[in-house]
Amino acid sequence: MTYKPRSEFLQVMRERGFIADCTDLQGLDERLRNGAAPGYIGFDATATSLHVGSLIQIMMLRWLQKTGNKPIVLMGGGTSKVGDPSFRADERKLLDEAQIARNIEGIGQVFAKYVDFGEGGTDAIMLDNAEWLDNLNYLTFLREVGRYFSVNRMLSFESVKSRIDREQSLSFLEFNYMILQAYDFMELNRRHGCVLQMGGSDQWGNIVNGIDLTRRMLGNDVYGLTSPLLTMADGTKMGKTAGGAIWLNADMLSPYEFWQFWRNTLDADVGRFLKLYTELPVAECEQLGALEGAGINAAKVRLANEVTTLCHGPQAAAAAEATAREVFEKGGVGGELPTTTLQAADVPEGGISIVQLLVKSGLAGSGKEAKRLIADNGARLDDEAVTDAGLMVDRGRLAGTVKLSAGRKRHALVRL
């Protein structure tokens, strides 16, 4: 990046590693230095919680507000009825309105922890694009909006082109998504003076479309800023683990498991993640990330505490750290470990197999995976190695809480 921005927001974005591309960095910088600027990120309601793959965007909204600008959280109540095809191999499952409403309610819970909502000039607002998309007249929309879109250009965007190149079907329904997202930007500019759309780098084409449409329909200059699509140092997708997605809502993933995800960060990622997901000074992030041995492990605990405090509060972070110390340093149980409670009907008189317990606890995704874990000497029952996949655990033992472990880092409790 040759241009060095002078606005506080873009300086933060640049120093902490948030910027992948910007449609007009200098123009956006000047606008940000000319008074509070409203900016938005859209979140489609495809599940009842976001996962940590969305956390980089949420942090961008937080920094936008902390540097004197106005964050707009746009819920995709309308676009979720279509589904974003970007870089997907197949079409998303269509959701009904009741499920979309439940998902929006669940997703909305997390944002109040990161931004302040209200009526002031820099207070965040939350909107739903169903407000304007649900009532569009199809023919009017085609005449007034559709005429500004070139199919040739839409086909050239990488998110669409990659799907076609792989000879994977792209429905007309999905093809309309980028038009609807462009329309969102134009409507937000018209209704709320929004001048910035942010998103992951996979949204570049959709953001550019919105900028063009806003200029053509309203004659206004708006800007786009994308963040890098993060992978971890081992090449795996951010937020995806063997145990599943790392959800942001506590009812989808316990604060302890959330904390443990960050504690298990690879050494090479610590400094980068501290800059992106915490508010520690950049110099301190770099210093912590450069540590080795016991020092880097302490830095990982700091990372886990800082991120968990933002998402779940300081008490949850402290409880998670205490549980981790009890489990890993003292060989104990720890009060915050994820717990599965079985009903009497779940356990036959002869007991339940260790394979079933591993699956029911969530430490294994299937019986086959559980057997492989045992064969690889990775399973433990009350800290004792399990070598027999046919081991049965009787009701008497389950009457007290038993501790299951998958490897050294994943633990769960099971009780009757």
Task: Please sum up the structure shown.
By secondary structure, the chain is an alpha/beta fold. It has helices at 8-16, 25-32, 55-66, 97-108, 130-133, 138-144, 151-156, 158-165, 172-175, 177-192, 204-218, 255-263, 270-277, 282-289, 294-312, 314-328, 354-360, 367-375, 395-399; strands at 21-22, 38-44, 70-76, 125-128, 196-200, 223-227, 240-241, 244-245, 339-341, 352-353, 379-381, 384-385, 392-393, 402-406, 410-415.
Structural commentary:
The protein has 19 helices and 15 strands. It is α/β, with parallel strands linked by helices and 416 residues long. The protein folds into 3 domains: 8-227, Rossmann fold (3-Layer(aba) Sandwich), CATH 3.40.50; 254-328, Tyrosyl-Transfer RNA Synthetase (Orthogonal Bundle), CATH 1.10.240; 339-415, RNA-binding S4 domain (Structural Genomics Hypothetical 15.5 Kd Protein In mrcA-pckA Intergenic Region, Chain A), CATH 3.10.290.10. The strands form 4 sheets. A 6-stranded mixed beta sheet has the order 1-6-5-2-3-4, with helices on both faces. A 5-stranded mixed beta sheet has the order 9-15-14-11-12. It has a two-stranded antiparallel sheet with strand order 7-8. Strand 2, helix 3 (55-66) and strand 3 (70-76) form a beta-alpha-beta unit. Helix 12 (255-263) crosses helix 16 and helix 15 (294-312) packs antiparallel against helix 16 (314-328). It is found in: Cytoplasm. L-tyrosine binds at residues 40, 177, 181.
